[in-house]
Design a protein that fits this description.
This is Beta-phosphoglucomutase. With 240 residues, the protein is of the alpha/beta class. The protein folds into two domains: 147 residues, Rossmann fold, CATH 3.40.50.1000; 85 residues, DNA polymerase, domain 1, CATH 1.10.150. It is built from eleven helices and six strands. Strands 3-2-1-4-5-6 form a six-stranded parallel beta sheet, sandwiched between helices. The longest helix is centred in the first third of the chain and has 19 residues. The N and C termini lie close together (7 Å). 48% of the residues are buried.
Length: 240
């Protein structure tokens, strides 16, 4: 690819810049399997459920989507619900508590290939933003030592404040491009989640790059990725 064709790079965070998708997966599994076990549901929550119903979505949307797959309906509740309350918000809050506990105890290191590409783009003067459904995006970036590269962060927190729908809607990516002052046709979206590449395609961005961290290259392509890589360092080798 020729980076002269683009002025901005819009990165998802979890699974693209940092391996925190693995931490999210563990936190979701812990929360959902405890919940299912308490209700006497024999079929456990699996990694396949994560990729199908949860990955890339705002937290409460992920709860709602998975519960619907098991024909379980809970009250919506409120974001102020205590963690573990039997509401959509209560389960989402419990998952967040589990995530923060794991992050605090284990920390996070960014993917080396992603660091290489980010530094290369910074040296070229390419504008960069983080677009993440996670409300913890700034804390994760700070823990990974990467926050200074991203003057614009559109996380689940900012999306909620602005009333923007989450992925697969393109609105958060469009907002990041707007804040960077770059037309969408001149921006590249980097995503590892099906909902994220679908958002990039729906937003009609200049290029959508899928990062295959386990969901599968075919599925990423089907949902809208123009190019699929296993690691962002491959884009350096391609002449970025």
């Amino acid at each position: 690819m020729d980076w002269n064709d683009y002025d901005a790079a819009l990165f998802d965070l979890d699974g693209v810049i940092t391996p925190t998708a693995e931490v999210h997966m563990r936190a979701w599994a812990q929360m959902f399997n405890d919940f299912l076990s308490a209700r006497g549901v024999a079929e456990p929550y699996t990694d396949a459920d994560y990729f199908t119903y949860v990955d890339g979505k705002p937290r409460y949307d992920g709860v709602r989507s998975f519960l619907a797959s098991r024909d379980i309906t809970l009250p919506e509740g409120d974001p102020s619900d205590p963690a573990g309350a039997e509401t959509v918000a209560g389960l989402g809050n419990l998952k967040n508590d589990d995530f923060e506990q794991i992050l605090q105890s284990e920390g996070v290191q960014p993917y080396p290939g992603s660091v290489q590409l980010v530094k290369e783009l910074a040296s070229r003067g390419t504008k960069m933003a983080i677009v993440s459904s996670s409300r913890n995006a700034a804390a994760v970036l700070d823990a990974a030592g990467m926050i200074d590269y991203f003057p614009v962060i559109v996380s689940g927190k900012e999306a909620g404040e602005l009333g923007l729908p989450g992925k697969p809607a393109p609105d958060t990516f469009l907002e990041a491009a707007r804040q960077l002052g770059v037309p969408k046709e001149r921006a590249v979206v980097f995503e590892d989640a099906l909902s994220g590449v679908a958002a990039g395609r729906a937003g009609d961005f200049g290029l959508v790059i899928g990062v295959d961290r386990g969901v599968g290259a075919d599925k990423l392509t089907e949902h809208g990725a123009d190019v699929v890589v296993d690691d962002l360092a491959e884009l350096l080798e391609a002449g970025a």
